[in-house]
Amino acid sequence: MVSETVPASWLVYCRPGFEHDALAELQHHAALNKVSCVASHGEGWVSLNRADGEPINDLHRQAAFNKLIFARQSLAALPALTLSRDDRLTPILEQVKASHWSFEEIWHETPDTNDGKALAGLIKALTKPLESMLKKRGALRRKAGARQLHIFWTAGDRVQLGISFPGNRSELINGIRRLRSPSRAPSRSTLKLEEAWHEFIPKQEWDQRLSPHMTAADLGAAPGGWTWQLVQKGMYVYAIDNGPMNTELMASGQVEHLKEDGFTWEPPQRLDWLVCDIVDKPMRVLAMVERWLVRRWCKEAVFNLKLPMKKRWEEVGKCLSHLESSLHQAGVKSQMRCRHLYHDREEVTVHVRLGN
Asked: I need a labelling partner for 210 at 20 to 30 A (CA). Which of 8, 31, 197, 262 fits?
């Protein structure tokens, strides 16, 4: 008889190279909730394992996915399994049975690495047989609270099973939003703003919050990757940059290019949007955005903060705390989120929406 297995691990996926930052973030939340944990990590993932072996569910729920910055996915996970190459499925089936889990979907996932991608053929071969067996055992079924089983393959003979819950997870495989780069956009950086909108604005609100005839400012606009996104939504854009803008973009008639310093320029009236992807020290960018928000020069803002090579989690935390404090002291109500997006590299993207 198989004994019950407890999900004592909090497993998250992250961008390779940012494991220490993701782990520091998880440890911060564990400390806030006074949960003693032991850390582990690999390329593109990290986990915290409860020292007392108790379920991780409370901590996983308290540190909600939409609060996390460096995590692409957030799971309550069982102990990792080492599989026999002769029979990979039986240990998975036995652990699912021991966990007493039920779920509506199975997602096979891997780290965002070349080694992870190389497992695609093996995963494809195992997917249907495993689904069939789990259906027969009643674990994979309809009406299971929209829970999903995540089978995270770190090697051909090593997996970790995790469970996710609606409203506290990414709804994307591997937590990655893959967007097609528009051929007419002036630069690939355009995808950063498009992904930010998908991440921070519910799709049903796009017609209201990203509508034609709105006004926007793009600070550090050249050559126009982010301005292009605003123009596609029908907005009129003040493009602030001393550098040259894309000729085709300027021909739209929706862009006013002002060769001025984005850190000092002031808008002629209140705008709907501020966007900014200036490469500079994060606190300098933050001070500029803070001025816009405190003075209510815009209704919503999306901006990137370029990160140092070390202690990136600490730097982000310091920046966000400073901005929250400044807005509170100024009596400005706001909603703020921050995420290390898939199309970001050495930066994080922040979204702020001001209240009425």
From this structure: 262
Q: Is residue 215 part of a domain?
A: yes
Is 60 in contact with 76 (CB distance < 8 Å)? yes
Q: What band does 4 get if pLDDT is binned at 50, 70 and 90?
A: low
For the chain, the domain total comes to 2
Cα 142 to Cα 216: distance, rounded to the nearest angstrom: 46
- The model's pTM is 0.95
Domain that holds residue 326: 190-354
R_g of the chain computed on alpha carbons: 23
Last residue of a domain, one of 152, 175, 198: 175
Q: Give pLDDT tens digits for 284-330.
A: 999 999 999 999 999 999 999 999 988 999 999 999 999 999 999 99
- Give me the CATH number covering residue 115: 3.30.2130.30
Q: Which of 97, 136, 306, 310 is catalytic?
A: 306
306 a catalytic residue? yes
Residue carrying structure tokens 């922040």: 350
Q: Are residues 203 and 146 both part of a single domain? A: no
Sheet bearing 271-276, strands edge to edge: 255-258, 236-240, 215-219, 271-276, 298-306, 347-354, 334-339
Q: Which of 305, 314, 311 is nearest to 338 (CA)?
A: 305
Q: How many CA atoms lie within 13 A of 247 on its CB side?
A: 0
In a domain, 184, yes or no: no
3 state DSSP class of 302: strand
Annotated binding site for S-adenosyl-L-methionine: 189, 222-225, 241, 261, 277
- Annotated binding-site members: 189, 222-225, 241, 261, 277
